Amino acid sequence: MNTVWALANVVVLEMVRRKDFYVLFILTVLLTGTAGSVNLFNDRSIVRYLKEICLLLIWVSGLVIAITCTARQIPAEREHRTIFPLLAKPVTRAQFLLGKFLGCWLATGLALALFYLFFGLVSASREHSWPVANYLQAGWLHWMMLGIVIAFTLLGSIVFAAPSSNGTICFVCSAGMLLLGRHLNKVALSLAEPLQSLLYGLYFVLPHLELFDVRDLIIHNWELIPWGVVALATLYAAAYAAFFLFAAWLIFRRRALN
Amino acid sequence: METTLSIENLRVEYRSRDLGESTKVAVRALNLRVGQGEVFGFLGPNGAGKTSTMNVLLGFVPPTSGTARIFGVDVREPIARQRIGYLPEQTYYYKFLTAEELLRFYAGIFQIPKAETEQRIDAVLKLVELDHARKRQIKTYSKGMQQRAGLAQALINNPDLLILDEPTSGLDPIGRMKVREIIQRLKSEGKTVFFSSHELGEVETVCDRVAILHQGELKTEGRVSDLLREHSANLEQIFLNLIGFTSQP
Ligand SMILES: Nc1ncnc2c1ncn2[C@@H]1O[C@H](COP(=O)(O)OP(=O)(O)O)[C@@H](O)[C@H]1O
Ligand SMILES: [Mg+2]
Q1: Tell me: the pLDDT tens digits for A138-182?
Q2: What are the domain boundaries of chain A?
Q3: Which of B59, B79, B108 shows the shortest C-beta gap to A2?
Q4: Residues with a beta carbon under 5 angstroms from ion ligand 2
Q5: Packing angle of the helix pair A44-79, A20-38 (nearest 10 deg)
């Protein structure tokens, strides 16, 4: 476990010292600030609209951070050849993958914490309230969802050779699932047979990322989700992440490095 | 003498789509033994199969056939790598880390206790003369400094066997001399050093024994002094002869 932590720590340090995260954060702040400055009256619907814009930016940034950070890990290790001195030490390939996963996930979590803090400030400046439990639930589920995305991207970085194409593929798949996931079954019904069963099958097999999207909870200040449901969603995310990581390990385990 | 490293009938083949599904034999029927405390020079021109052999020793590539053992343990077991230090060719270490952080990271992987880690870091940074730059990010290092950072990481676990892949390539004469000095220091501490090179002058001065590899085949192997006497020529001439190169009159 120490080995996995050591690996994860380097990934987190990398994110903290690189510029891309700060760029996204500042962009989000600026765009939200611009949108907010348009709102001169303290109209409730406009506050909502502001929160919606801010959350949308946070969701897009979250995906971008999670995917770019993960997609470059293994290709960079190979390109800079650091994978050689690393795996020449008593590190198993499973530990290597787990460390990379954990690091990307923790780094993304740090970024999310900062983004949600900003969201809380924006919201509090208009509504003068801090529904902390709501933020915790929304942020937690968001983070769990990104756990699935990170595991999937890590798998992708082993399957596809080019890091940029892997990043694009993972982004399109994740965004597609978030937007269309809940409608896949209905779309399936409108198709002809071989495709219908295929899409229907996908509807049942693919992880439903959109389930983790509870933005309404903090836009409309809805009642909290029962904690049991949150726990179930966490398990659901853990199961998918574990599945993708396991697949990555199966491929990576015997791969010759040269 | 106790055997630290042994290679038996090793064959390494590459098969890839880039090669049009044909196979490329990088190493064939290689047998080697390196004893404890020896400095062993693994020589050969570019493409001879030196790196391929090392890749097997470190478990990066499975042998096509044959076996390799380090301290008697098959190299396919990760535990075989607990007591070795490895310096790969041309590695660009995590440039956003400082030398100190890099070494702390690798020490963590060996699960070296905290207090001991700091001692080791001080010792290896002093040995490779990077003490003054230990708090600077690696992206500010010159090529020679990066190579020495690489040597430092190879030494962090106080290994009994060092595997160095062309440790002096790309360095200026002073850098090369420093690396040679470090190898000699390690030898005096009783460490076993297995290193590849194609620069023969330096090999003569530091190696106990050498092996010369060409196109994946072992051409000769023995004590440097014996080879020099047998062929009554210097190592460079022996090397050129063995790989079938005859200079124009
Ligand atoms: N990944 C690979 N795929 C195909 N051939 C390779 C690969 N790596 C090395 N080779 C070939 O194997 C031979 C030995 O290479 P290498 O072990 O790197 O030599 P050296 O380290 O002695 O310069 C060379 O002919 C090289 O072209
Ligand atoms: Mg080589």
Answers
A1: 999 999 999 999 999 999 999 987 778 889 999 999 998 898 888
A2: 2-254
A3: B108
A4: B 50-51
A5: 170
